[in-house]
């Protein structure tokens, strides 16, 4: 396969990512400004995507926009990976009921990666982008995820983290282990002012049936709001996630 074909494939995906971020019709000039691609090659790519039915062209202003054909390409993926087509709508309902930012995260070695984020409706809400990485150790989402793992897995993670991180400013190991034990007992984890100042989070682990992976659902926002409403938020999370949430016990 030629390098030029690989480059064209990457650029076609870049075009689609711009639409995902902007969520509005865009002209060739606007896409060119966003991507910095040569006008000639961008024009060829756009014509190709239109010919294949993945983009449509506005009759008046010659703006481009994704088609339903493109949407259908991936509408099955969330259900296949998560094991439930209702999980993402459930997260939207959780955001609407709490008015706080809701995230779905997965482990990535010694970090947690945001797979899905719904920004809260409060005037001041936590801003999170999909793909953002959070520390595994010391955070509510990391503690919740580790609480769903067996002791051997947790010991290995903490050992590698201890070797890789500087002792200065590092949370005490016994405090981390105590937080994991508390999360196992209660079914959820909390953390306040850890990743960002004046920010709190409540996290619950869920076991998906698709790939059998443990993911974490979290509600996060200003510390004083999360702390004040902690009991109510936990109750709402448990009610909505009941079908997805396993009862975790140390293996």
Task: Walk me through this protein's architecture.
The strands form two sheets. The protein has a six-stranded antiparallel sheet, sandwiched between helices. Strands 1-2 form a two-stranded antiparallel sheet. Helix 2 (28-35) packs across helix 3 and helix 7 (140-147) crosses helix 9. It starts with a helix and ends in a 10-residue tail after the last helix. Helix content is 48%, strand content 19%. The chain contains eleven helices and eight strands. With 251 residues, it is an alpha+beta fold.
Please bin the fraction of helical residues: 40-55%
In the predicted model, the low-confidence regions spanning at least 5 consecutive residues are 245-251
Based on secondary structure, the structural category is alpha+beta
Distance between the termini: 48 Å
| Total count of helical runs of at least 4 residues | 11
Show the helix and strand layout.
Layout (H helix, E strand, L loop, with lengths): L2 H20 L5 H8 L3 H13 L3 E3 L6 E3 L1 H7 L2 H6 L4 H12 L2 E8 L2 E8 L14 E3 L4 H8 L3 H14 L8 H14 L2 E4 L6 E9 L6 E9 H6 L1 H12 L10
Helix pairs in contact: 2-3, 6-11, 7-9
């Amino acid at each position: 396969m030629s390098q030029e074909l690989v480059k064209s494939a990457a650029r076609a995906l870049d075009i689609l990512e711009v639409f995902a971020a902007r969520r509005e019709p865009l002209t060739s000039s606007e896409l060119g400004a966003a991507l910095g691609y040569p006008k000639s090659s961008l024009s060829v790519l756009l014509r190709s995507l239109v010919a294949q039915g993945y983009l449509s062209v506005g009759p008046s202003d010659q703006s481009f926009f994704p088609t339903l054909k493109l949407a259908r390409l991936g509408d099955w993926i969330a259900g296949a990976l998560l094991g439930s087509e209702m999980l993402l709508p459930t997260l939207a309902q959780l955001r609407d009921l709490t008015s706080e930012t809701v995230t779905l995260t997965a482990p990535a070695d010694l970090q947690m990666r945001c797979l899905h984020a719904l920004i809260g409706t409060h005037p001041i809400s936590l801003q999170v982008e999909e793909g953002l990485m959070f520390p595994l150790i010391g955070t509510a989402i990391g503690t919740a995820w580790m609480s769903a793992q067996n002791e051997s897995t947790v010991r290995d993670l903490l050992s590698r983290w201890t070797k890789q991180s500087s002792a200065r400013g590092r949370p005490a190991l016994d405090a981390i282990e105590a937080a994991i034990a508390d999360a196992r007992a209660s079914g959820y984890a909390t953390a306040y002012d850890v990743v960002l100042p004046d920010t709190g989070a409540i996290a619950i682990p869920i076991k998906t049936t698709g790939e059998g992976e443990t993911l974490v659902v979290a509600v996060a926002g200003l510390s004083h709001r999360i702390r004040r409403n902690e009991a109510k938020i936990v109750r709402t999370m448990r009610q909505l996630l009941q079908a997805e949430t396993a009862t975790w016990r140390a293996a």
